[in-house]
């Protein structure tokens, strides 16, 4: 269990996975990158090569692949782990998961102890890891073949409480999103008992249901039957609001998030030190100014919400000639400022809260989540600003002005321009045909630049694997703190050294901050235990430490009276010009 774990997600450290593909195509450089994936509670999500158990407060939608999902009856165990613990996953079948939940529910309702002699076996390999007779993965529950008027539909297992429905090939096609919308509207107009929530993405719809109310096979039959009854979407029209938002390109908060990533997670990567320069290279553009210009002229259509948290949009440029292709961070950031605008794959996201994230960061805009509904723009009692099929258009402002607007918008003293129009899918498809030659040229140039960047990325990933083993304190310490070298200061928790707040030789007082650790997406100050002179640090920014590791020492003033201890103090000052008699005088 990684030190950066909390109610949003539990990061895991383990063997680097072997992937069956080299990259994510349009979705990004890394093979873990996908166009969209709705996230079940308890799913194991690979943010690059690092797995994360997504928990109760985690994201509902994102662009990383999910491989397995923890059964609901077993989720309580995730709340018991701490950094440094070891987790082992054991495969069980869907039927076993449901039976475990029934037993757990009975125990809670009757307040009786379970019969340990009837414990379910969780060690047998089951159908979820084997192939069915037709060679398909047994994780695929059903498939509807492609027809002249509708795409292929695949129904996937997504744990014991979810079914994931995917439409068509793994490409961005607004026609597929309209197919998702058609099914969602049908389910909302004719509710199915047991369905708890519908979560749409770019080309998929996740069904969250109670498997104790409606069985998986019964629900599957209803979904397949309903799908076959849907009319073609070729002539569908939807209401679309155009939402105009101010944005500062490469503001200070955005650059700070990148700097923190370099300091505490990873110092080198194709997207470092500048995300926008990376976007320029991977798209074959001549300058970062071109990146800026494209972002400001683009109309981004919102296809999903909750990417990553609190109503954050998963939005795509309506005009495919404006689709900047990027990759997501590997591993993901532990911090992104609320209101930050990012691009991952070909999708735009606005972060609704301070949170982890993986998109390339380009700027900052207004808060899109209004907790106390102080602004009338947030209507119908909903604290999120954007809706499905909204079109977001950014315009430039200065950073000082944006800060004023952010505060006023949050309090309801600032409004934004919103207009309404109708988005006609037939007209849009005709538009795509009219720009086909130009679009083909744009994609070929983009693909050539992408392939060059993939080659650079593979070299950098090899370096990352080599350097990972030397980033912990045990690899960096060259000695220990002896008794006569002062009072040792140890880490109270496992974490990462984010910042050294003092220097060897500094005079410190009890309670002064010596360094700051980062853990569980929070910062923890390590304070001086006494007055004295600060000794050598046994760590540096970016060092991973465990609880109990000695980080630094402090020579107490009361210990500075003897000649031997004065020499020790002088040694720890590393040649710093200071009169030792001043030290004695202070004592």
Automatic annotation (TrEMBL):
The keyword Ion transport does not apply. Residues 482-555 form the Lipoyl-binding domain. SUPFAM superfamilies: Cyclophilin-like, PH0987 N-terminal domain-like, Single hybrid motif. Keywords: ATP-binding, Biotin, Hydrolase, Nucleotide-binding. GO terms for molecular function: ATP binding; hydrolase activity. CDD domains: biotinyl_domain. Pfam families: Biotin_lipoyl, CT_A_B, CT_C_D. SMART domains: AHS1, AHS2. InterPro entries: Biotin_BS, Biotin_lipoyl, CT_A_B, CT_C_D, Cyclophilin-like_dom_sf, PxpB, Single_hybrid_motif. It comes from the Eukaryota. Gene3D superfamilies: 2.40.50.100, 3.30.1360.40, Cyclophilin-like. This is Lipoyl-binding domain-containing protein. It comes from Plectus sambesii. The lineage of its organism: Eukaryota, Metazoa, Ecdysozoa, Nematoda, Chromadorea.
